[in-house]
C-alpha cells in the first residue's frame, strides 16, 4: 500500500482545497479523519468544507478546517448561492466525499483544477479524476465509511495509511452552555453519568424505550446517573423513558450539537441507538455501547480507539436499507436484542476503561 501509485497532484503548490460532505450528523463526524489527514498533508492550504446548515455546528471549533460553507437542503436558492460562492474561490483541489448529485454539482461549479470522485459516482463526466474503490485501496473486501472517504484522498497521494480516527473539538461556549442548563435543572454534573440516546429516525434502528429504561435502572445500581437527549420532535421518546424508568433520568431536547459534544466528552459512558449522536460520543473518546438494528455494522460502527461495543442480533436479512422492515411485521433485528446483552456490553466497556 505504501508504494501504491497516485494521480499527479503537486501538493506543495496546492493553496486551496474544497471538501463536500452533505447529509447527516454521522456522515459529518465520519469526515473528520479525512479533514485531519488533509490538514496534516497540506498545512499551507486553505481547507473549506460544504455542509448542510442544520448539521454544520458539529464542526464548530474544528481546527482542521478554515471555512465551513453551509447550504440549505430544501432551498434551490441556497444551492445556487453556495455554488456561486465556491466558483469565486478558485480551488485547486475538490473532493466529493458524498457522491450525491447535489455534491457533484458543487464540485463541478467550483471549477477546481482537480475534481476528485469515485468511478461509481453518477455523472462521472463532471470529474477529471475518477478513482477506483476503497476496497482496492485498502486491499480488503469490506471498508468502513471513514475508510471510504480516506481512500479517496489516499489515491491522490495524501497520507492516510494510519487510518485517523474521528475527532471533534469542544468549545468553551459549549462547555458553559451545558453547565448553565444542567445547573438550571439541578443536575449535579460532577457525578458520574451516562449519555443516553434512545431515539432514532427509523423504526429499524429504534430499540424499545422500555428496554432503555431497564438500562437506566442498571446504571443507577452502578452509581451512574443518566442524561437522555433527543430532538424536540422526539420529546415523546424521552417522556416515555422517564415514565418507564424506576430510576431518575434527566431528559433534554434543548442542547445544541456543540453542547451535546461537550456533554458526551464529560460522560462516563454513552449508550444509544446507531445514530449521529453515537458518532459524536465516539469522536470525543467516550466509551460507547451502540445498539444496531438494520445498519451495516462493518460500515457504520464507531470509528474510535476508545472502548466500544456494538450490540446486534445476527439476522439473515441484515443489513438492509433500513427504511422499513420487509421481512417481519416489526423489525426483529433490533427488537430481539435483550437488556442483558446491552448490559453485558456496558460491563465490558466500563471494565476496559478502568
The helix tally amounts to: 14
Summed up, the domain count is 2
Q: Can you list the strand order of the major beta sheet? A: 3-2-1-4-5-6
Query: In this structure, how is the largest beta sheet organized?
Result: 6 strands, parallel
Q: From N to C, what is the helix and strand string?
A: EHHEEHEHEEHHHEHEHEHEHEHEHH
State the helicity in percent bands.
25-40%
Oligomer: single chain
Report what the structure shows:
By secondary structure, the chain is of the alpha/beta class. The protein folds into 2 domains: 11-154, Glycogen Phosphorylase B (Rossmann fold, 3-Layer(aba) Sandwich); 175-353, Glycogen Phosphorylase B (Rossmann fold, 3-Layer(aba) Sandwich), CATH 3.40.50. It contains 14 helices and 12 strands. The protein has helices spanning 25-29, 32-41, 76-87, 101-110, 134-138, 145-154, 172-184, 209-221, 235-244, 257-266, 276-283, 297-300, 332-335, 339-353, and strands at residues 16-20, 46-52, 67-71, 93-96, 114-118, 129-131, 193-197, 225-229, 250-252, 269-273, 288-291, 308-311. A 6-stranded parallel sheet has the order 3-2-1-4-5-6, with helices on both faces. A 6-stranded parallel sheet has the order 9-8-7-10-11-12, with helices on both faces. β8 (225-229), α9 (235-244) and β9 (250-252) form a beta-alpha-beta unit. α2 packs parallel to α6 (145-154) and α8 (209-221) packs across α9. The radius of gyration is 21 Å and the shape is globular. The two termini are 36 Å apart. The model has no long low-confidence stretch (mean pLDDT 94).
Question: How would you briefly describe this protein structure?
Answer:
The chain is an alpha/beta fold.
Amino acid at each position: 500500500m505504501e508504494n501504491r501509485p497516485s494521480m499527479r497532484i503537486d501538493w506543495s503548490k496546492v493553496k486551496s482545497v474544497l471538501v463536500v460532505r452533505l447529509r447527516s450528523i454521522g456522515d459529518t463526524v465520519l469526515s473528520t479523519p479525512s479533514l485531519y489527514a488533509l490538514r496534516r498533508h497540506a498545512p499551507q492550504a486553505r481547507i473549506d468544507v460544504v455542509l448542510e446548515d442544520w448539521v454544520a455546528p458539529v464542526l464548530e471549533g474544528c481546527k482542521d478546517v478554515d471555512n465551513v460553507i453551509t447550504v440549505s437542503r430544501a432551498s434551490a436558492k441556497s444551492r445556487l448561492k453556495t455554488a456561486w460562492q465556491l466558483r469565486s474561490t478558485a480551488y485547486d483541489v475538490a473532493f466529493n466525499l458524498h457522491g450525491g448529485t447535489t455534491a457533484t454539482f458543487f464540485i463541478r461549479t467550483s471549477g477546481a483544477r482537480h475534481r476528485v470522485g469515485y468511478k461509481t459516482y453518477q455523472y462521472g463526466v463532471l470529474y477529471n479524476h475518477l478513482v477506483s474503490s476503497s476496497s482496492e485501496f485498502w486491499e480488503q473486501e469490506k471498508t468502513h465509511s471513514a475508510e471510504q472517504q480516506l481512500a479517496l484522498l489516499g489515491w491522490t497521494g495524501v497520507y492516510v495509511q494510519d487510518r485517523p480516527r474521528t475527532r471533534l473539538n469542544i468549545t468553551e461556549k459549549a462547555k458553559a452552555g451545558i453547565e448553565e442548563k444542567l445547573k438550571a435543572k439541578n443536575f449535579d454534573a460532577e457525578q458520574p453519568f451516562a449519555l443516553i440516546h434512545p431515539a432514532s429516525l427509523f423504526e429499524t434502528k429504534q430499540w424499545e424505550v422500555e428496554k432503555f429504561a431497564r438500562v437506566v435502572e442498571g446504571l443507577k445500581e452502578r452509581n451512574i446517573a443518566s442524561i437522555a437527549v433527543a430532538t424536540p420532535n422526539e420529546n415523546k421518546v424521552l417522556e416515555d423513558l422517564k415514565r418507564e424508568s424506576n430510576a431518575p433520568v434527566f431528559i433534554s431536547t434543548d442542547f445544541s450539537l456543540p453542547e451535546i459534544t461537550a456533554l458526551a466528552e464529560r460522560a462516563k459512558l454513552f449508550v444509544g441507538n446507531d445514530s449521529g449522536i453515537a458518532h459524536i460520543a465516539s469522536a470525543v473518546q467516550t466509551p460507547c455501547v451502540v445498539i444496531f438494528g438494520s445498519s451495516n455494522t462493518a460500515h457504520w460502527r464507531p470509528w474510535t480507539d476508545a472502548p466500544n461495543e456494538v450490540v446486534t442480533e445476527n439476522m439473515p436479512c441484515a443489513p438492509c436499507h433500513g427504511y422499513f422492515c420487509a421481512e417481519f411485521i416489526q423489525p426483529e433485528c433490533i427488537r430481539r436484542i435483550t437488556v442483558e446483552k446491552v448490559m453485558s456490553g456496558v460491563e465490558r466497556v466500563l471494565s476496559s476503561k478502568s
